[in-house]
What does this fold into?
Amino acid sequence: MKNVHLVEHSLIKHSLTYLRDKNTGIVNFRQHAAIISQIMIMEATRDLPVNEKPIETPLTATMGYSIQESLVFVPVLRAGISMLFPVKDFLPWAPVGFIGLERDELTAVAHEYYQKFPQSLKEKRVIVLDPMLATGGSLVDTISALENKFAKTICVVCIVAAPEGIKLLNQKYPDVQIYTAAIDSHLNDRKYIVPGLGDFGDRYFGT
Ligand code: PRP
Ligand code: URA
It folds into this structure.
């Protein structure tokens, strides 16, 4: 496995336990999904290039910094929305593009039902938000759509990833960096992540 950043943090361990527990209700599920998303975005943006920006404090002149690159968030509908809410305040100026993908319950193959990106993604660093990386099909479709729009850099931020999905992304998009809070064991015969947490979207949205 390449380009995988497994973010290890005690707060993630604690919150992920709530997400995994089948007895966790919607309030705690949402709350802990938000906590993990915020930690994950901190890691995914840790090395963003910055420009020096001279400023004056009330006491003296000093050097500050500002983020250099144009960023775009792309949550994968629907579950990716859960990550957009808690992270958008970290980069409140970043435009948001959307792609809607839903896996067929029998085949686990995703079909696209919606796409709306900013006019141009040239020179943009795109941060894709999707809590679950299972077969990788949804993210392959997402990255393909972003490459068609000439996105400069693409990284993926998820919460739980399966080895199968990571392998597929590595094969298809060897330059894409993947940030995840957990790498689980495998997919079951219905292509759900094991041990996983079940259907993220259904649990987060209460459907
Ligand atoms: C889930 C999840 C990912 C996708 C991962 O979405 O949010 O987008 O499955 O599976 P994959 O790696 O095998 O493609 P789902 O299709 O259940 O739609 P939802 O977000 O509307 O719940
Ligand atoms: N999507 C989910 O929500 N959960 C899985 O385990 C796999 C795909």
